[in-house]
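Posting this for the archive.
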Amino acid sequence: MPRAGLTGVDVVASAAGLADEVGYGSLTMGLLAGRLGVRPPSLYKHVDGLADLQHRLATLAMTEFGDVLRDAVQGQAGLDALTAMMTAARAYVTAHPGRYTATTGAGFDGPDDPLLVAATRVVNTIAAVLRGYGVSDAEMTHAIRTIRCTLHGFAMLEASGGFRWDADPDQSFDWMIGFIDRGLRPA
């Protein structure tokens, strides 16, 4: 019997927290049920299985990520917007590594999929920052991919403890932003 008052939103929110704690790859229906104090079959009232839960988790994370980026860049331009966006992305990924991992490689279920809507918002925010540098439409896809790869790589390495030598990651992050800024400026 489902726990009284448990909702689909509760299930996904709990899954997000659990993914951040144990890692996205370790998230199971049984572990989530234990967290919520229900038996695993009770979760199926709220989600259609692990794949559906993962898709909903990716949607939640992409929506949160889009909100964070949008809020960070509002009213900013150029280097200020780039710095704000990259700093906000780094903070989100390091605070929520499990749920962020859910967004990587998640597929879309059609043109009305909320995950696609959320992902489009993220891409549009990055594009807005890049337009401030004068990136042409012909180069926009390449520039967005470069920014996403750089953000993803740095933040995921940091979140997984990948920076273990003497150099301060904050200094490396600042250097990286400066490097990207110089590369985006017209020659």
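The domain at 57-184 is CATH 1.10.357.10 (Tetracycline Repressor; domain 2). The two ends are 65 Å apart (CA to CA).
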